[in-house]
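Field log, afternoon session.

UNIT: design team B
ACTIVITY: writing a sequence onto a fixed backbone
BACKBONE:
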């Protein structure tokens, strides 16, 4: 009887125990689901929060949603500031430097140098000849070769063209620069590139590159395009001798031109001086002649009234001035017939003779 009652007692307690376990399991599962929901919510918040991005003051940005730009025209470009997009892989943010200066170097026509040599400015040894595997060069119009390289600096002016018209815009700029150097080098002689027309070659490279940028619509603008040219290192000594000879020739020509200018200026100055003196003498002589003519014209009426009297007065005036300091003076009047007296003077005496002296 007791065993039966005990069995019945266990039989009656089992459902309650099962209900308590189920309830505890349900509560545990509920707590777990709550935690999972919270974690998922936090993950969603973190996922969405990761979509915030900052656009710098020198940048523009474009959102690509599954590879397609969001927006149309200029509205695709987002300016500086904080923006939001769906995180990757839904959206992808493409940043475009606008005012930042970018550099592309074309060294296909340059000899091989290591980064250490570039930093130190050292020129590697020339060797017996160029190595086609590593050394580059350009062919000129007179079938010579030169080394040329350009460090091209530019900035983006049309971000949409720069980003969406090319799979890799920087490679397109590099190709345009390389093709420009090949084209321009083939139009110039080696001496012109290296010595005679360095500025002309520089201008030709920049003009050709600008035309290529416009034709291919790269969406960039040139900031600097310095061209560096050198002869093959194996012929550097020969080129140095040519340069020295040209410098000496230029110096001699300059000296000759300076001497020419000095001699010409001196001759011009002397000629001007002679002309000025001649003009002054001419003016003085003409003025003197005019004064004499005026004086004679003023005296002419007096002479015409009594020529003899005028001659005597003039003669007396002249004689008076001439004989101012003469000690002895004689005045000879005229004869009745008007003829002057004849005066004979013995200027020296006869030497005395000794009458008493005999032979």
């Amino acid at each position: 009887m007791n065993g039966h009652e005990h069995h019945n007692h266990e039989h009656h307690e089992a459902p309650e125990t099962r209900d308590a376990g189920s309830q505890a399991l349900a509560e545990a599962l509920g707590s777990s689901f709550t935690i999972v929901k919270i974690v998922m919510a936090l993950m969603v918040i973190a996922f969405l929060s990761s979509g915030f991005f900052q656009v710098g003051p020198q940048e523009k940005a474009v959102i690509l949603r599954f590879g397609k730009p969001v927006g149309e025209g200029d509205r695709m470009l987002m300016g500086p500031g904080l923006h939001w997009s769906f995180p990757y892989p839904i959206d992808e943010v493409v940043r475009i430097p606008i005012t930042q200066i970018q550099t592309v170097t074309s060294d296909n026509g340059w000899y091989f140098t290591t980064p250490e040599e570039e930093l130190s400015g050292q020129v590697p040894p020339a060797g017996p000849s160029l190595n086609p595997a590593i050394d580059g060069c350009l062919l000129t119009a007179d079938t010579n070769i030169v080394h040329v390289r350009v460090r091209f600096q530019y900035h983006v002016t049309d971000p949409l063209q720069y980003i969406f018209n090319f799979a890799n815009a920087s490679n397109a700029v590099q190709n345009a620069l390389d093709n420009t150097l090949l084209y321009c080098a083939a139009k110039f002689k080696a001496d012109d590139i290296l010595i005679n027309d360095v500025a002309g070659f520089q201008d030709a490279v920049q003009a050709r590159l600008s035309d290529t940028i416009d034709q291919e619509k790269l969406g960039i603008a040139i900031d600097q395009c310095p061209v560096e040219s050198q002869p093959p290192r194996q012929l550097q000594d020969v080129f140095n001798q040519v340069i020295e000879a040209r410098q000496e020739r230029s110096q001699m020509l300059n000296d000759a031109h300076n001497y020419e200018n000095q001699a010409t200026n001196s001759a011009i100055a002397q000629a001007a001086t002679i002309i000025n003196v001649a003009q002054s003498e001419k003016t003085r002589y003409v003025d003197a002649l005019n004064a004499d003519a005026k004086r004679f014209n003023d005296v002419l009426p007096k002479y015409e009234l009594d020529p003899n009297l005028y001659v005597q007065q003039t003669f007396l005036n002249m004689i008076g001035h001439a004989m101012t300091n003469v000690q002895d003076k004689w005045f000879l009047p005229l004869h009745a017939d008007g003829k002057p007296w004849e005066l004979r003077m013995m200027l020296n005496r006869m030497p005395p003779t000794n009458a008493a002296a005999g032979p």
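LOG NOTE: The CA atoms of residues 112 and 133 lie 9 Å apart.
NEXT ACTIVITY: expression trials, pending approval
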